[in-house]
Design goal:
heterodimer; A: 317 residues; alpha+beta; Alpha-Beta Plaits; 2 domains; three-stranded mixed sheet; two-stranded antiparallel ribbon; 10 helices; elongated; B: 421 residues; mainly alpha; Formate dehydrogenase/DMSO reductase fold; globular
């Protein structure tokens, strides 16, 4: 399909290991150990085991569109909100909504089947990718994938370039454009403080009344998804969205109709970061290519100057 | 520089009808910039969650960096490959690059939501080597420093032996003077190291700008989404370097009523059909290999923009500059160089704005008035500062043969010595 792959260009390799963090650091160690010392220790050298990481299975067939998850999310994350009862209003389904900087998750209705007219509801939030494009793109490491699953944002590091928003294949990160002095990137946190520190379920899962949201390790959830598909094959299409999309995500979906009918985008199995990181690491392989270019240019400059000065010398004599 | 040209401050007035217009645009831009800082990005721009990047990234940063490429291409030609006759072009190109990158940073600061954190990539604890933007940021930061170091000899030449600071600071005269002496003594010895570093740093970040959008494969139009995008960015930056120098030389000659250095400009223009032609060939080869030609004829806005970029901005100037007659006419050179600049700037706008299709667009992004005013204000300020510097520093060379030329007495006759410095 992609001729450049056949030509051996370093793209679309599916067998990349976990992003290497060492490539700039290798050469920097000598000069920057003093400054970096404390921070270097934080880096987790072990590859993340995505199957052991936590995730959530969203069952759009079981979902009744009660929107309690929206309320719980707003409540836990201290976002602007209303009474729980106000979320029973189904009128919001008339317009398609997206997560915003003030609402990390929204539930949308979609028409599944033209023939039966059956409607489904689908909760939208950050997918917490196994290999997140946002984290790969962030130049200061303000977005990080935790081994427990959540992709977490650190506003203190962020410079506000919004490259993560360009990079996200699900168009999730939202920006506080109205905030002039302290704008932040906002998105679902996977309730990281609950999940990582307390081992509790995220707020939306805890409130869900009908097992449309199930919390567990990724491998448990994949097993659960498989058994739901197998036990009621008429109810579900045989596709767990997020199992392979962009290299797999912590949040995954089940649906009763082809996912093309949902707002979830059709995506390749290759994490977006695999398009850029091989190029970056190729150019900077232990700094050899830049240094080689420097040496080459130095050589050219020197040898041509010799000739020049010879000629000058001859002129003077 | 043994031949005939010596750089000297240009003798002309700072104010002209043109500069007054630019001063007005600069003032408007300043006000718009202040508004953005006070009211925030949401009030000042048309950016939203679907379109996180607008013209401040596509024009001020991406096109700005590309059009500042004259600095490193000219340095490579004259200082590394020792094509001595092009030395007259080095200082104007260096000044353009220095100011260009300075304004890239100023433009970027307007776009950064948390601009006060712009220094964060310098902290090793925050280094993120997987990020393309990290490399671009580091390279631009270091290259900007290198550019100021490269400009230092010009400042030394201007002020050495002539340091006369105003009253309260005049006690420092001796210190500054001796510092300049030290600079003069050692800069010459090490300047080559910085010149080569400038070329290497340029190659790195010019190409990496082309890698940036590759992280969004599902949102990019296939006409511009190619894994060789970094190569195309580098080749187009190299190709636009000399046309930019030609464009500026002709403009500033006209503005200062000097005779354009037609001989040197025609001569350096010979490289452009080769460099730009190679870029065109690679671009066509890339389209063919990816089977992407059908997108050129799909009739969408993107396909039209691509066709304009390729035909008007690349193929036409290659055709024009391949002709001796065009290269030897001031008008021909100016028009062709303008086309190349247009083509490369349009390419950056296409890659960063036109090719970008968000997944859930509400309305299509178009820049707000504030965004446009900031961009035009920055460009105007750049031109004005360029003018101020060439009036006060030895940047532009007036060839000695011009002294006998009829145009020069006209220029000097009208000029009053500028006393800004």
């Amino acid at each position: 399909m992609d001729p450049w792959f056949d030509l051996g260009l370093p793209l679309r390799k599916d067998n990349m290991s976990i992003p290497r963090r060492d490539f700039f650091k290798l050469t920097a160690l000598g000069s920057a150990t003093l400054l970096a010392g404390a921070a270097e220790a934080d880096d987790d050298p072990e590859p993340l085991d995505f199957d052991k990481a936590y995730g959530v299975l969203v069952d759009t067939v079981a979902c009744i569109g009660c929107r309690k998850c929206e309320w719980a999310c707003n409540d836990f994350n201290a976002l602007p909100t209303q009474e729980l009862a106000a979320f029973e209003d189904k009128a919001v389904f008339r317009t398609h909504r997206r997560p915003t900087s003030a609402a990390y998750t929204v539930v949308n209705e979609f028409a599944g089947d033209a023939a039966t007219g059956k409607k489904y509801t689908l909760k939208v939030q950050c997918m917490h990718c196994n290999e997140p494009a946002c984290a790969s793109s962030c130049l200061v490491g303000a977005l990080q994938k935790h081994k427990e699953g959540p992709v977490v944002y650190d506003a203190w590091k962020c410079i506000g370039c919004r490259y993560c928003m360009v990079a996200c294949p699900f168009q999730i990160p939202a920006y506080e454009y109205h905030n002039a002095l302290d704008p932040q990137v906002r998105k679902c946190t996977f309730c990281a403080s609950r999940v990582i520190d307390e081992g509790r379920k995220p707020a939306c899962v805890e409130i869900c009344p009908c097992e449309a949201l199930v919390f567990g390790t990724r491998s448990e959830l994949l097993d659960l998804a498989d058994s739901r598909i197998k036990t009621s094959p008429g109810r579900y299409v045989d596709h767990v969205y997020g199992e392979t999309e962009v290299g797999g995500t912590s949040w995954m979906y089940l649906a009763g109709v082809d996912f093309a009918a949902t707002e979830l985008p059709r995506l390749s199995e290759v994490p977006p970061s695999h398009q850029t990181e091989p190029i970056q690491h190729g150019i900077f392989k232990s700094f050899v290519p830049p240094l080689a270019l420097y040496g080459l240019l130095g050589l050219v400059m020197h040898s041509l100057r010799e000739r020049e000065s010879d000629r000058d010398g001859a002129d003077h004599e | 520089m043994s031949n005939h040209e010596t750089p000297a401050p240009v003798r002309a007035k700072f104010l002209s009808p043109g500069t007054k217009v630019l001063l007005g645009l600069m003032a408007a831009g300043l006000a718009a910039y202040a508004y953005r800082l006070i009211a925030g990005l949401g009030a000042a721009t048309n950016l939203d969650d679907q379109y996180p990047w607008g013209i401040w990234i596509a024009i001020d940063v991406a096109s700005g960096v590309a059009l500042a490429a004259g600095g490193f291409t000219t340095a490579a030609l004259a200082d590394i490959f020792h094509k001595e006759k092009y030395h007259v072009l080095v200082r104007p190109a260096l000044l353009t690059a220095m100011l260009g990158y300075t304004f890239v940073v100023i433009g970027l600061l307007a776009d950064l939501g948390r601009y006060y954190n712009v220094w964060h990539p310098m902290l090793p604890s925050m280094w993120q080597g997987n990020s393309v933007l990290f490399e671009v940021g580091m390279c631009v930061m270091i290259y900007l420093t290198v550019l100021y170091i490269e400009f230092l000899p010009i400042a030394v030449e201007r002020f050495r032996g002539r340091v006369r600071l105003p009253r309260p600071l005049s006690v420092l005269n001796g210190v500054v003077e001796s510092w300049l002496t030290v600079c003069e003594r050692y800069l010459g010895r090490f300047i080559s190291l910085f010149i080569i570093a400038g070329v290497v740093l340029s190659c790195l970040h010019q190409s990496s700008l082309g890698t940036l959008m590759l992280i969004a494969p599902s949102k990019m139009h296939p006409l511009w989404y190619t894994p060789i995008s970094p190569l195309l960015f580098l080749m187009s930056a190299i190709a636009v370097g000399f046309p930019m120098v030609i464009f500026e030389s002709i403009l500033s000659a006209r503005s200062f009523r000097l005779k354009p250095e037609l001989g040197v400009l025609s001569s350096v223009a010979r490289y452009t059909p080769v460099l730009l032609g190679a870029y065109l060939a690679v671009k066509i080869g890339d389209l063919t290999l990816r089977n992407a030609w059908s997108y050129v004829f799909e009739g969408s806005v993107a396909s039209v923009m691509f066709a304009v970029e390729l035909l008007v901005g690349v193929a036409l100037p290659v055709f024009l500059l391949a002709r001796r007659r065009v290269r030897h006419s001031v008008t021909g050179l100016f028009v062709s160089a303008s086309l190349v600049i247009f083509g490369v700037a349009l390419n950056r706008i296409n890659v960063f704005l036109v090719a970008y299709h968000p997944l859930y667009p509400g309305k299509v992004y178009f820049p707000s008035w504030i965004e446009i005013l900031v961009t035009t204000g920055l460009i105007s300020a750049l031109v004005l500062i360029y003018r101020l510097i060439v009036l006060n520093f030895p940047v532009i060379s007036v060839s000695r043969s011009d002294n006998t030329d009829a145009t020069v007495p006209v220029a000097t006759g009208q000029a009053t010595l500028d006393k800004v410095g």
